Amino acid sequence: MLHQFLAHRLLQEHDVWLELCGKICLPPTGVATGQLAPWIIWQLWIARNQLSFEGKTYTEEETMTRAVALAREWQNAQEPKIPPKPKSPLCLPPRPPHCLVLNIDAAWKATSMLAGFGWTTRDSAGTSSFTGYERFVGS
Predict the structure, then answer these.
(1) Partners of 123 in beta bridges
(2) 98 vs 69, higher pLDDT
(3) Is the whole model's pTM more than 0.70, yes or no?
């Protein structure tokens, strides 16, 4: 009976409805954005229908728990997905004075079982490049 009275009264009084919708949800509801009032009213309506048509009753705690859970579920579904940041060029710290940088690459062709490889070394004296290949490489 209380559910029916509250739902009827809240839906008829425009000022009360606007005030309820303007209320901020505080922790621990987990509803940081959006409004909780519409979800409470919806659950009151559902509880009223369950009582009227099926004879089922729900406690106030059950009704509120469902309202908060649905509001939280809705909020989580509405949050925009943050697109991944574009990859920025790799920023490496300056190399120590006597550091050697080695870059290596290789490729393999299954039909000829031939592997090719190359590498480049870079240090304070300059850059050197090397290449090679190997036959009958299984993979």
Answers:
(1) 126
(2) 69
(3) no
Long-range contacts of 56-62, Cβ-Cβ distance < 8 Å, separation of 24 or more: 60/2
CA 91 to chain CA centroid, Å, is 27
**Mean pLDDT, residues 110-114:** 87
Closest by CA position to 7, among listed 70, 60, 72, 75: 60
Q: What is the structure's pLDDT at 26?
A: 60
User: Coil, helix or strand for 29?
Assistant: coil
Given a cut of 60, whether residue 10 has pLDDT beyond it is no
With b for 16 or more beta-carbon neighbours within 10 A and e for fewer, the 61-99 pattern comes to eebbebbbebbbeebeeeeeeeeeeeeeeeeeeeeeeee
CA 82 centroid distance within chain: 7
Average pLDDT, the chain: 79
Torsion 82-85-86-87 (CA) sign: negative
pLDDT value of position 56:
93
Nearest CA among 103, 102, 109 for reference residue 139: 109
Backbone angles phi, psi at 126, to 5 degrees: 140, -160
